Amino acid sequence: MTSKKIKPKTIKARVGELPKCPTGIHGLDEITLGGLPRGRPTLVCGEAGCGKTLLGMEFLVRGALEFNEPGVCISFEETADELASNVGSLGFDLTALIANKKLVIDHIFIERNLIDETGDYDLEALFVRLAYAVDAIGAKRVLLDSVEALFDGLENRPVLRAELRRLFRWLKDRNLSTIVTGERGQSTLTRYGLEEYLSDCVILLDHQVTETVLTRRLRVVKYRGSTHGMNEYPFLIEEDGISVLPVTSIDLKYSSSSERVSTGVPALDSMFGGSGYFRGSSILISGTAGTGKSSLSAHFAAAACARGERCVIFSFEESADQIMRNMRSIGFDLKHWMDKGLLHFHSVRPTTFGLEMHLVKIHKIIKEFNPSIVVVDPVTGLLHAGTSFETRSILLRLIDFLKEKQITAVLTTLTDGSLAQEQTQIDISSLVDTWLLLRDIESGGERNRTIYILKARGLAHSNQIREFLLTNHGVELREVYLGEVGVLTGSARVTQEAKDASAAILGHQEIERKQLLLLRKRKVLDAQIAALQLELETEEQESQQLIAQEKLKLVKSERDQGEMADSRFVKKAIPVINGSTLAARGRRK
Amino acid sequence: MQPKLKRITQKVPTAKWQLRLYVAGQTTKSLQAFANLKRICEEHLPGEYHIEIVDLLENPQLAKGDQIFALPTLVRRLPEPMRKIIGDLSNTEKVLVGLDLKSHQSSLA
Question: Which CATH architecture has domain B2-108?
Answer without folding.
Answer: 3-Layer(aba) Sandwich (3.40)
